[in-house]
Amino acid sequence: MELLLALLIMITVMVIPVKLAASMVGAKNTGFFTCLGALIVASIIQLMAIRIVPALSEQLGILLSLPLTAVAYMMVLDTSFLKGILIAVLQGFILVLMTFLLAGLLVF
After folding, report:
1. Membrane-spanning residues where (predicted)?
2. Per the structure, how many domains does the chain have?
3. pLDDT at residue 90, as a whole number
């Protein structure tokens, strides 16, 4: 039961930044399960890219991850490529902010 609860919390913490960023940018599909699907598609696309492109360098992987994530968000959230990039960047900032807030709450 604890594992299921931990998994549910982890999924929620991962989806909320995408949902908030998609709403800020004005994406057409901003539902919880749509954002969860966007995260899953982005992960699958990135895993395929890792398998296709050999691990040449860590910097290349970082450079490829942003446009690939933007393509996934563009397809699933029904938005433009530039808005997909903005969603990916905003998602990262919101996730870091949420992590700091949750870590601060757990300290006290």
Report:
1. 31-53, 60-79, 85-107
2. 1
3. 94
